[in-house]
Amino acid sequence: MRGVFVTGTDTEAGKSVVAAAICAALADRGERVAAFKPVVTGTDDPPGEWPPDHELLAAATGQRPDEVSPLRFGAPVSPHLAADLAGTVIDPAQLVAAARRARAWADVLVCEGVGGLLVPFAFGYSVRDLAADLGFPLVVASRPGLGTINHTLLTIEAARAAGLEVRGVVMTPWPKEPDAMVASNRETVQRISGVPVSGLEPVSPTTLARAGATLPVEHWL
Question: Which of 2, 37, 128, 151 is catalytic?
Answer without folding.
Answer: 37
